[in-house]
Every structure is written in C-alpha cells, then in structure tokens.
Amino acid sequence: MTDNRTLISRFPHLRQDFAASLVVFLVALPLCVGVAVASGVPAELGLVTGIVGGIVTGLMRGSSLQVSGPAAGMTVLVFEAVKEFGLPVLGVIVLVAGALQVAMGLLRLGRYFRAISVSVVEGMLAGIGLVIIAGQLYPALAAKAPDSGLGKIAGVPGAFLDALGDTGALASLAVAAGTIAVLLLWKHTPAKVRAVPGPLAAVGLATLAAFALDLPVATVEVRGLLGSIQPPPLSAFGELTGVGLLGTVVAFTLIASAESLFSAAAVDRLHSGPRTQYNKELVAQGAGNMVCGVLGALPMTAVIVRSAANVQAGARTKASRVMHGVWLLLFAALLPGVLAYIPVPALAGILIHAGAKLVPLRALTVLWREHRGEALVLAATAVSIVAVSMFEGVLIGLALAVVKTAWEASHVKLEIVDKGAGPVEAHLSGNATFLRLPKILDSLEALPQDRPVRLDLSGLHHLDHACRTALENWAARHSAAGTEPVKLVTAA
C-alpha cells in the first residue's frame, strides 16, 4: 500500500497516461505500417520510427502531449528519395536532416517557422494528400503506380478499367473500399465500440475478411525487426557531395520541421496544459531523426492524428507518448509475424482516408470567398507539388506568398489636382514599389506636357530605388520644350 501511494505521489497522472498510451499505440500501429509500405521501405522501419518517436523524442522537452512518428505527409518525399538514391542513403538523409533540425533549434530558429504562410502549408499538405490518394489507388487496385504525380492522376481511369476484368484487382479494391467505409462510419458507432480506434478496427476487419474469405490480395512482407534495421554504410555519406541529395536533405529538414511545429500549434489549442517550447521541440524532433537516420529508418515528424488521440484519451504528461513507444517496441519484438496477415489494400485504404483529410476543401472555399489571393497561393502550391515535385512545389508556394504579400504591401495612391490654371498637382502616398510602377507611370504620362507639373512625394512611406529612378527619368523627359520642368517635392 505504501509503495502504491509513493508511486501515485511521484506519478499522479499515471492512470490517465497509461490508458492514453494504449489508445495512441492502437492508432499508431496501422499508420506506422501503412506509411512504411507506401514509402517503399520494409514495414518494420515504420515501427522503428514510431518507437524512436515515442521513447527518444517523447522523453525530451518541447511539447508535452505531441506524439511523433512516421507521417503520411512525408510519404511522397521518402518514396522519391528511396527511388532516386536507394534505401541505404535514406539513413544519411534523415541523419543529416535531424542534425540540421537540432542546429536550428539551438540557434532559436524554431519560432520563425510560425511565420510561414498558412496558405503555403495547407497547399503543401493538399498537394501531398492528392499525390497520396492517387498513388494509393494503385495498390488498392493491385496495380503498379506510375512514377510522377501527374502520371498517377492521369493513369487512374485506366487502372480502374483494367481492374474490371481481374478478380484479384476487384478483391483488392473491395478490401480498400471496405476499409475506407469502416473509417468513415466508425464515428457513428456506439461509444463502447469506438473505444477501439478506427484505423485499427478498419485494418483488423479487413485482415479478418481477407483471411476468412481467402481473398487473393497482397499482404505485407515481413523481414523481422533486426533484419530490417540497416544503418547506412560509410560509403553512403559520400553521396552528400551531390547537389540533388543536398536539396533532398533541405526538403526533409524544412518540411518535417514545419509539419511538426504547425502540429504543435494545433495540439496546443486542444488542451490547457503547458504550451509548446518551439526551439526545444525542434531539438527533440532533430534528435529523434538523428537516431532514425543511424538505424536506417523513416524520418519522423509530430503527427496530428496521434497527438489529437493522445489529448482526447486524457493524457496529462509526456509519459503517455513514451509508453506508446514501449508498446510499439514490444509488438515489433514479440509479434512481428502478425504483420504478414495485413492486406496491402487495407493499408492503402487507411492512407487514402488520411490523404483526403489533408485536402482542405472547406478551408479553400472560405478562402476563395474572403481572401482570394490566399486561395490562389494554396491551390498553386498544391498543383505545383503534384506537377513537379514536393521541394519545388513548396518553393513555388513560398515565392508566390512573398510576391502576394509584397503586392498587397505596395498600396500607393496617386491623386491629381488640376484647377485649370497654374501647375497640375500630383500627390503620391503610400508605398511606391516596382510592382506598382506601371500603374503610376501610366497615370503620370497622361498628364498634359504643356503645363507645369508638381509631383509631391512627401506622402510616401516607402519609395524603392526602381520607383525613384523611374520617376526622376519621367520628370526629366515629360515637359515639352518651353514648359517649366516637372518639380519633384520630397519629404524633408
């Protein structure tokens, strides 16, 4: 009794955290496996990343209730990296990206990720979601997916037509569709039934159906935990001299960091406990990714699905996420053979459902009505990711966001006062930048050339070099011969 009281006094929230850890474990298990399979790596590596995210990152300071592991949002990038550089080099990429995250956290750069345009982030997630949906329709149809994002989308109708005459493809599609149906309908089941997380229930039911009906569907290949862990060889570090690999490292670093810190902001809104310390959270994510890199596993980010499940299950401290990592470790060590019974189309269904959640259709509709420029940035980012690649798509989105902000910030007003006699008064106010220069010059060039003009620039808050030079050139050439030159009036 005394020992129990001592334990309770040292860990007053142990009961709530223990219960929450089981819920998070059951949510994380199918997602870890699904993300790994979709990324083109052994299923066990997804579990390794989940274990590291729980035990290593979970023990560190930053966000107390946020849960980390392999994320659907990184699937496309990982798949492309593995395809281009090979699985051994993936560990190098993740290791170096983690080191950069630690460095950014120590340099206190974590807070600057909060300055990234929300439209770019939502566009990034939407683009990822579209590629995930298109890509996972192929394993759902027992077909091979094309390489490019556009190819995946363009090939979907043909894949469906080919499946019509194929019993195996139709069985696979039925399993995927059934999995998605369970996920969509699970929230309408009785509360006692919902104690089992939807993803686990969907995969469990799909596995039972495939086994009981002896369906001709592909199942997860199992290598064993130790057999899947392959630390990157020293020769793989030589690939860091390539520009392409360095670009991929930067993409991993920025996207994983942004996803984790935006997830932290969302999780903070779900509870009233301690707020996230962004720089420390970035260090924690980086440390976890360095360990994942050494083990040759998938990169990790904070995952909003698991984090929300953790909060909603009543977690009070970081003990819940650490224990969820322990349960993943025990499962991977003791019951790895269970993975071999899981149908691949069921995991495809899980990821199609997850990808659909990344596409913010409602938010896009609201943005289009209220902030059309933001909606265009979101849509352009998503389309660029699908059409080109993840890294280039995000860069295009960021560039568009900067241009939009610069355009909106360069409000300038030109007021013309012409009393019919005496000089024409032209007053410029606001921010005169090169973006508004064509409009300014069109108005000024329409002024009469045979009368004196007084151009007052004293109302400008900002006048960039391009504008100043263009206005001076206009003033020098505007007046006709024999007319008084344009007079420029600047602020004192």
What can you see in these coordinates?
- The structure is a single chain.
- The chain folds into two domains: about 10-360, no CATH class; about 410-490, STAS domain (Transcription Regulator spoIIAA, 2-Layer Sandwich), CATH 3.30.750.
- The chain has 20 helices and six strands.
- It has helices at about 1-10, 15-40, 45-60, 75-85, 85-105, 120-140, 150-165, 165-185, 200-210, 225-230, 245-270, 280-295, 305-310, 320-335, 345-360, 360-370, 370-385, 390-410, 435-445, 465-480; strands at about 70, 300, 410-415, 425-430, 455-465, 485-490.
- The strands form two sheets. A four-stranded mixed β-sheet has the order 3-4-5-6, covered by helices on one side. Strands 1-2 form a two-stranded antiparallel ribbon.
- It is elongated.
- It starts with a helix and ends with a strand.
- The relative contact order is 0.17.
- Its main location: membrane.
What is the element layout, followed by pairings?
Elements: H1 2-10, H2 14-38, H3 43-59, E1 68-69, H4 75-85, H5 87-106, H6 118-140, H7 149-163, H8 167-185, H9 198-212, H10 225-228, H11 243-268, H12 278-295, E2 301-302, H13 304-312, H14 319-334, H15 344-358, H16 361-370, H17 372-387, H18 390-409, E3 412-417, E4 424-432, H19 437-445, E5 453-463, H20 465-478, E6 487-489
Parallel strand pairs: 4-5, 5-6
Antiparallel strand pairs: 1-2, 3-4
Helix pairs in contact: 2-3, 2-9, 2-13, 2-14, 2-15, 3-12, 3-14, 4-5, 5-11, 5-12, 6-7, 6-15, 6-17, 6-18, 8-9, 8-15, 11-12, 11-13, 16-17, 17-18, 19-20
Membrane topology: Multi-pass membrane protein
Subcellular location: Membrane
Transmembrane segments: 18-38, 85-107, 119-138, 167-186, 198-220, 240-267, 326-356, 376-403
